[in-house]
Amino acid sequence: MATKLQPVRGTHDLIGEGFRRHHRVIETARRVSALWGFEEWATPIFEDTRVFSRGLGETSDVVSKEMYSFQDRGGEGITLRPEMTAGICRALVSNGLAQSVPLKVFAAGPVFRYERPQAGRQRQFHQIDLEILGSAEPLADAEVIACGWHIQRELGISEGVTLEVNTLGDTPSREGYRSALIAYFTAHRDALSEDSQRRLEKNPLRIIDSKDAKDRALVADAPTIEAFLTDEARAHWDALRRHLDAFGVPFGENPRIVRGLDYYSHTAFEFVTDRLGAQGTVMGGGRYNGLVEEMGGPATPSVGWGAGVERLAMLLEAGGLTPLAPRLVHVIPVSAAEEEEALRVAGALREAGIATEMGHKGNLKRRMERANKAGARAAVILGESEVARGIAQLRDLDAGTQEEVALDGLAARLAR
Question: Which of 70, 76, 132, 325 is the most buried (most CB within 10 A)?
């Protein structure tokens, strides 16, 4: 007996209710982002490994531990994308669009990270992504955040989700802050996790993002960046908060948000919830001003966010917001003699925009049973007499009523 094959660990099938939730998230994000003037892009799911090793930073967990990288048959280093932003910035440069900024981009699709699978965290998962490329203004930061909040409200999941914002300052701000963090964490080096001891030498800001319990105890008393902000960085931070107020987006300040990738500056933010257990972040991002340059393009200040579709779909499920499957009309020929006419009727209904099904076999009783089991809203029954008179028996499967309807008026009757 052949081995029963299963999905690879960390992957999952999207079927039925699961797919409908997934689809609702992406289509809502696509619709709302278009209202805000974002254009959809689609980049390849694999890239030259350097797109991510340069863009995300060698010290990030994604690059050092989680990327699916391999050599293809031509010996090229290839990586399945672990996030969307670096590929979008590469596309900006590759397609000669750096002179056309600012550009507002929406994207959606699968991403890949090798990590321990758990609820809301898979090795192949899906993201929606929003970027404003080529704008240094704090208004751009506020706009991507407000659009993300709008998407959550349209999904009906914003209750219980909180926006937390922070500033990472500009380069001079971070230099002063970096020195202060090195001094603080060096004094507590022996208490740091092994990962954070390595980060202390390369990128001490990443220690702030550590999930290790020992590290988090030390982070609670670590210095914050507020005292090191330059006048320019402080002005950006103040303007962001004013703009969020003007957009009507509620937020709180969290000086411990640094995000997990190395390319962020100025604004960092997360939408968090306690409704998903340990996986509390549902949308996060910030400003990045050097990433396009890493791809070989000109200096292009940008800002954006990514959100896990699976986590947003979990919030839909938790809120009882799973979309219903479309209710079909079943066309039922009484015998084989009426099948050709039934096919024509089904085709006409579909052309009129009415979702229609017609079974491949079975007598009237069996076909009616299938229609009821499938939750059909109506059955169109065609027998010899009906075909001869150009009518159908239309049975309302909710009300249990039945009426004769002329075939040329069937679509209009069902539309009502």
Answer: 132
User: What pTM value is reported for the model?
Assistant: 0.90
Residue 303: other Cβ atoms inside 10 A:
29
Q: Could you tell me if 286 and 363 lie in one domain?
A: no
Q: Within this chain, do residues 25 and 71 fall inside the same structural domain, yes or no? A: yes
Q: Count the Cβ atoms, other than its own, within 10 Å of residue 412.
A: 11
**Which one of 294, 318, 342 terminates a domain?**
318
- Which of 262, 287, 318 is the C-terminal boundary of a domain? 318
348 and 259, same structural domain?
no
Residues 289 and 355 in one domain: no
Span 109-165, pLDDT tens digits: 999 999 888 777 799 999 999 999 999 999 999 999 999 999 999 999 999 899 999
**Whether residue 304 sits in one domain with residue 252:** yes
- Are residues 157 and 82 both part of a single domain? yes
> Do 272 and 144 share a structural domain?
yes
- Does residue 394 form part of some domain? yes
The pLDDT tens digits for 166-202 are 999 998 998 898 889 899 998 988 888 888 888 887 7
